[in-house]
Specification:
With 229 residues, the chain is mainly β. The protein has three domains: 4-105, Thiol Ester Dehydrase, Chain A, CATH 3.10.129; 108-167, Antifreeze-like/N-acetylneuraminic acid synthase C-terminal domain (Type Iii Antifreeze Protein Isoform Hplc 12), CATH 3.90.1210.10; 176-227, SH3 type barrels. It has two helices and 13 strands, in the order E-H-E-H-E-E-E-E-E-E-E-E-E-E-E. The strands form three sheets. Strands 1, 2, 3, 4, 5 and 6 form a six-stranded antiparallel sheet that branches. A five-stranded mixed beta barrel has the order 9-10-11-12-13.
């Protein structure tokens, strides 16, 4: 036996006796609302249904409205959708019918507004949000990519995938920085040179010119690293 989850509840206005029936369009709208509230879809997603079929057109003709729509647990929001539609039939409470449809979802997706060179740091003006088919490594929020560095060249209108960006480096190889060294209860600082580039919290090799030593340091800011003992 299938288990179902209620994804939406939709109550339609009661229709007059001469028009006391639920139409196919009303069923489609109720199912769209249910699919758009699916937990796997990002907020603001748009759903388009095709091949909507109700198992019993006769029950729809007797119904005054739709009480709720239930979609089977574990069923995704894209592809073939099977739902149980509960109907408001005054003479026969607790009536429902199967509805099947094919669902296509368009979700908010971050894309580039122009060509972006490899190694560039993305700004808010470089990206926009459009609706596209879901991609597991795409972003829906532009703030998730702003400030990140591109790992490859991106064409205008291209989806910004997670694997194509990383944290922009605070420190470049050869940058002068301050090395913070903890010795006992004292904090000692010394001029140093970054031997690698890196981002916040990353560990890189740094050189202390006064001693010639190369040590490991954790980047604290663009000008400071903590020497690891």
């Amino acid at each position: 036996m299938k288990k179902f989850i209620i994804l939406t509840t939709l109550t339609l206005l009661s229709l007059g006796p001469a028009h006391a029936q639920v139409t196919q369009d009303q069923v489609s709208r109720a199912l769209v609302e249910a699919v758009e509230s699916h937990p796997e879809l990002a907020p603001g997603s748009r759903v388009k249904l095709s091949h909507v079929r109700a198992a019993s057109a006769g029950i729809l003709a007797r119904a005054h409205g739709i009480q709720r729509v239930e979609i089977a647990k574990g069923q995704g929001p894209v592809g073939l959708i099977t739902a149980r539609v509960w109907l408001d039939v005054p003479s026969d409470p607790g009536v429902w019918t199967w509805v099947r449809a094919r669902s296509q979802a368009l979700v908010p997706t971050v894309v580039t507004l122009r060509d972006i060179e490899r190694g560039a740091t993305l700004t808010r003006g470089d990206v926009e949000v459009v609706h596209k088919a879901p991609h597991p490594r795409a972003h829906s929020n532009p703030q998730a990519v702003v400030g990140k560095r591109t790992r490859r060249q991106l064409k205008s209108g291209e989806v910004v995938l997670e694997s194509w960006i990383d944290v922009a480096p605070l420190v470049q190889r050869g940058d002068p920085i301050e090395a913070s060294i903890k010795s006992g209860g004292l904090n000692v600082s010394a001029p140093a040179i970054a031997m690698q580039r890196g981002g916040p919290g990353e560990i890189i090799r740094i050189k202390i010119p006064t001693t010639g030593r190369v040590v490991q340091g954790r980047i604290l800011s663009a000008k400071q690293a903590e020497v690891l003992q």
